[in-house]
Amino acid sequence: DAESGGGDAASVDDALRVPDDYDTIQAAVDAAEPGDLILVGPGVYEEAVNVETDELTIRGLDRNEVILDGGFEKDNGIRVVGANGVAIENMTARNYTNNGFFWTGVDGYRGSYLTTYRIGDYGIYAFDSTSGLLEQSYTSGSPDAGVYIGQCYPCDAVIDGVVSEYNGLGYSGTNSGGNLLIVNSTFRNNRAGIVPNSGSYELCYPERNTTIVGNLVYDNNQADSPAIEVAF
Fold it and tell me: What is the rounded (10 degree) CA torsion for 222, 224, 227, 232?
């Protein structure tokens, strides 16, 4: 499925388990091979995870109890760099200086049942990436955008069932579009709700061909939300 990113090629029985088999998420990621499933048990993981292996599924066992915590010092909760088809599911990221969950330079990605809050830049962030699905997620407390898809054309991506509130921007997407759908989501209590935009300072200029339908957008213009200058 081009719009769902990675799949469950490996069974749960063959999963790499954190912390049972590996003390950290990063250790499990480093040991994994394409198609592997990494299961993360409840706990607070004070790490910034980098993923460079294709087709991994990283799945928390409890969305609210599997917590990546940056301690206001680490940059990204999980960053996927050039690894295609990586799915991240069912966990929380908080207190990172840059981003909660971040895919960059990939073809095929999926973020499902994710929560981010108190993030320094973007909550859930896909940049220069195509064939993606961000779904059933909650993001709050990002001074830039709660959820962002940028610099892609055609993006071939879907945002579905997301709640984004108390951010600078509920959704932002610079120079994105082309089979890009934002649907069935709620954007409330941000400085601004949905902000597709163009910027000649990045590739794929301009923003175009984005479908925004079936969303709730209300109670924005919140003066007490964290916000970068453009959100003002």
Answer: 50
Structure tokens at 83: 């690894």
The whole-angstrom separation of Cα 61 and Cα 168 is: 30
Give yes or no for a contact between 80 and 95, defined as CB atoms under 8 angstroms apart: no
Quote the pLDDT of residue 10.
64
Which residues does the chain have with pLDDT short of 50? 1-4, 7-8
**What is the spatial distance between Cα 232 and Cα 229, in angstroms, rounded to a whole number?**
5
Sheet of 99-104, strands arranged across = 49-51, 76-81, 99-104, 122-127, 145-150, 169-174, 192-197
Task: State the DSSP string of 26-58.
Answer: HHHHHH--TT-EEEE-SEEE---EEE-STT-EE
Taking every pair of Cα atoms in the chain, the longest distance, rounded to a whole number of angstroms, is 50
Radius of gyration of the CA atoms of the chain, in A: 16
> What is the torsion angle, in degrees rounded to the nearest 10, for the CA atoms of residue 135, residue 35, residue 31 and residue 13?
90
Give pLDDT tens digits for 131-156.
Answer: 999 999 999 999 999 999 999 999 99
User: Parallel, antiparallel, or unpaired for β 66-69 and 86-96?
Assistant: parallel
- Residue in 157, 159, 129, 130 with CA at minimum distance from that of residue 145: 159
pTM across the whole model: 0.94
How many CB atoms sit inside 10 A of residue 13's CB?
A: 6
* Number of DSSP helices (H) and strands (E) in the chain, helices first: 1, 22
Distance, in Å, from the CA atom of 128 to the CA atom of 140, rounded to the nearest integer, reads: 23
